[in-house]
Amino acid sequence: MRILATNWRARTLLAVAAVALVAFLSVDVASAQLGTPTPITDEGKDIHDLYLLVLAMGTAVFIGVEAALIYILIRFRRKNDDLPPQTHGNNLLEIIWTTIPIVIVLALFVATFITLVDIENEAAEEDLTIEVNGFQFQWEFTYALDDLGTNTAPGGEGTFSVIGTAAEEPTLVIPVDEPVEFRLRSDDVIHSFYIRDFLYKLDVIPGRDNRFVVTARETGTYQGQCAELCGVSHAFMRFSLKVVPREEFDRWVAEQNGGNNTAARQP
User: Fold this and answer.
1) Domain-located, residue 160
2) Quick check: is 168 in a domain?
3) How far apart are CA 71 and CA 139, in angstroms?
4) Which pLDDT score is estimated for 267?
5) pLDDT (mean) for 257-266
């Protein structure tokens, strides 16, 4: 009778642990969705999927370990002064708790490697390229008229720049559904190019040209900033990103090229 009661308690604890695991996974995934902006790029979506995978696996490990601890504390709690049977080593148990972490680490490694390969795209020759220069304390975005993307007719020459000032934040404009390469450089200190809705940032380092390629899938206006403390006016290194249809992008380019949008840098 005592054995049946013990088995019933064990099964109950395992059932409660399983329900708790499912509940915690659901809550964690929901919280992650609520706390993270919806990515607007293909690359951001891949990063978000990897984040959810790591979160789910971490939660499963946490719940599994805690459930095992609670079960052991109840199942093998002290009942009297008799010394319980002593077990010195268990080969099967050693293999299990060594294999499980190895499988988890390998799974995360493979998933991370696949995601990195997917998001570290090489720019095609016909992709739009934007030169991004970070300086104390603003941004300069330079467009080449002969390198404005796949859907632009050739023939333009020269460049134009959008430069932010202390009084006016710059606006970076890109077309939707087209790959865009950002080439990052700095003239002074380390900055960091960060657009929240990309779920991605990359340091802007003096003497080193960093680059990344994204394809935005949602039109709209989004906020960007420097995410690296770079001096006393670091907080003013903000900018806007506008993702627009190709026709609107071409009109904007014509307006910028026809006017004078190269403001002097403010110290």
Assistant:
1) yes
2) yes
3) 57
4) 40
5) 52
- As given in the structure block, the two tokens for residue 246 are 């190709």
Q: Is 100 helix (H, G, I), strand (E, B) or coil?
A: helix
Are residues 100 and 196 located together in one domain of the fold? no
When divided into structural domains, the chain yields a total of 2
113-163 residue pLDDT tens: 999 988 887 777 778 999 999 999 999 999 988 888 776 655 467 888 899
- Owning domain of residue 65: 2-77+90-119
Torsion 100-105-110-112 (CA) sign? positive
Q: What angle, rounded to 10 degrees, do the helices at 2-35 and 42-75 form?
A: 160
Alpha helices in the chain (DSSP H): 2-35, 42-75, 91-119, 246-258
10-28: b (≥16 Cβ within 10 Å) or e: eeebeeebeeebeebbeeb
With b for 16 or more beta-carbon neighbours within 10 A and e for fewer, the 75-107 pattern comes to eeeeeeeeeeeeeeeeeeeeeeeeeeeeeeeee
Structure tokens at 234: 């670091």
Residue 224 · residue 21 · CB < 8 Å: no
**Cα 130 from chain centroid (whole Å):** 21
Specify the amino acid at residue 143.
Y
Q: What pLDDT, on the 0 to 100 scale, is given for residue 227? A: 93
pTM listed for this prediction = 0.75
| CA 197 to centroid of chain Cα atoms | 9
- Is 217 in contact with 44 (CB distance < 8 Å)? no
Q: Which two tokens stand for residue 117?
A: 């390969």
